[in-house]
């Protein structure tokens, strides 16, 4: 794919594209603007993969996408013995919307006013027609996943149902687990245009599901009574089954109970905005950096360079330092006298007295060993 990206890349002067050095070139007055068609349109290929899912974006004619698909099928067959067909690799136009990892990639037509400075210093304003790439979270896929987790029931209007899997857990533990789920979903939909709407909907489903669970667990009959006692974010303690409510704040101050965290994103204003910050050039995910570091450390040449650097600075590795201590102990320790097999029982009784007779001078020889500086290894 790296070879195909370089092969099919044809930049245009009127379009904004990033060069090889990361510097944008073209009409930077409207960086998101992409011409709809014509010779001024840049031809470009993008590739992204997440686990076993991958997406190839072709900015150009459909023929380029068909040729690239054919080459991809042949490559997977020859290299990995994986049989792919056209049905598993469909070619969809961006106007219809492309589903990828519960996100819909589509485009919106815009009519921006492009202003630029012509020769002679004259400022020219032109009305253009272009498109903007839009990434939205699929609400249908979100509802589908909640149904799998048994948080929802009903086909037309989604209605929360109690998550009885957390029935025997405490209120603090249940709220903490649901907050982890909400934070994960907020991070998953970080780049979606409708991030606020989708995350707030997820918070509504989870909050309603927990309210029904607490109503059944503490025999409160309805969600309204649960919200009245535990507040909107379910952060106040509920009564136990016997109807006795101990002083929660006193128990919390003594450390006898866990603090109850309220649910996140109970209002849409609490949900963070979509992140439109572009990734820097040469960006790599954290897990890929760790893998590259591991590959580099397992290389024999890297290990030899580290050892030579340690010798030049007069340091010693922790492994060599421990080996030196063990060898000094074996060399300076006093050997115990050997016992006969017939006196085996007596030897075990006299073993402690013999070791007690060892002088502090013999055992203390280890304290006089020169202790060089130990190198800090990563």
Automatic annotation (TrEMBL):
Region span, Disordered: 12-36, 340-378
Annotated Gene Ontology cellular components are: cytoplasm
Q: Pfam families annotated for this entry?
A: Intron_maturas2 (PF01348)
- Tell me the superkingdom of the source: Eukaryota
User: Could you tell me which residue ranges the Domain X domain spans?
Assistant: 135-229
Write out the biased-composition intervals (Acidic residues).
351-364
Task: Show the ranges annotated as biased composition (Basic and acidic residues).
Answer: 365-378
GO terms under biological process: mRNA processing
The family database entries (InterPro entries) matched by this protein are listed as:
Domain_X (IPR024937), GrpII_Intron_Splice-Mob/Def (IPR051083)
Descriptive protein name: Domain X domain-containing protein
Q: Which organism is it from?
A: Oryza nivara
């Amino acid at each position: 794919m790296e070879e195909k990206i370089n092969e099919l890349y044809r930049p245009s002067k009127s379009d904004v594209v990033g060069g090889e050095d990361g510097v944008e070139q073209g009409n930077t007055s409207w960086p998101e603007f992409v011409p709809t068609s014509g010779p001024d349109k840049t031809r470009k290929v993008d590739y992204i993969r997440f686990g076993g899912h991958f997406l190839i974006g072709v900015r150009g004619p459909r023929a380029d996408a068909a040729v690239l698909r054919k080459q991809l099928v042949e490559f997977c067959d020859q290299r990995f013995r994986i049989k792919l067909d056209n049905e598993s690799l469909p070619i969809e136009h961006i106007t219809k919307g492309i589903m990828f990892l519960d996100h819909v990639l589509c485009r919106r037509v815009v009519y921006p006013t492009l202003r630029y400075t012509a020769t002679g210093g004259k400022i020219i304003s032109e009305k253009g027609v272009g498109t903007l790439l839009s990434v939205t979270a699929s609400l249908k896929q979100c509802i589908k996943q909640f149904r799998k987790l048994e948080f929802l029931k009903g086909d037309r209007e989604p209605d929360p149902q109690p998550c009885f899997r957390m029935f025997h857990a405490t209120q603090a533990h249940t709220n903490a687990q649901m907050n982890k789920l909400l934070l994960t979903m907020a991070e998953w939909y970080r780049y979606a245009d409708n991030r606020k709407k989708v995350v707030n909907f997820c918070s509504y489903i989870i909050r309603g599901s927990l309210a029904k669970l607490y109503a059944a667990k503490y025999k409160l009959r309805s969600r309204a009574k649960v919200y009245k006692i535990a507040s909107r974010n379910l952060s106040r303690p509920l009564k136990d089954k016997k109807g006795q409510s101990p002083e929660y704040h006193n128990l919390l101050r003594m450390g006898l109970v866990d603090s109850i965290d309220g649910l996140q994103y109970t209002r849409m204003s609490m949900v963070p905005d979509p992140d439109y910050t572009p990734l820097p050039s040469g960006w790599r995910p954290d897990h890929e950096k760790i893998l590259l570091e591991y590959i580099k450390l397992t290389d024999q040449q890297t290990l030899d360079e580290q050892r030579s650097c340690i010798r030049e600075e007069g340091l010693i590795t922790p492994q060599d330092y421990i080996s030196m201590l063990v060898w000094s102990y074996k060399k300076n320790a006093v050997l115990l006298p050997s016992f006969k097999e017939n006196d085996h029982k007596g030897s075990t009784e006299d073993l402690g007295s013999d070791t007690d007779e060892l002088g502090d001078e013999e055992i203390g020889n280890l304290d006089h060993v020169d202790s060089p500086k130990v190198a800090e290894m990563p």
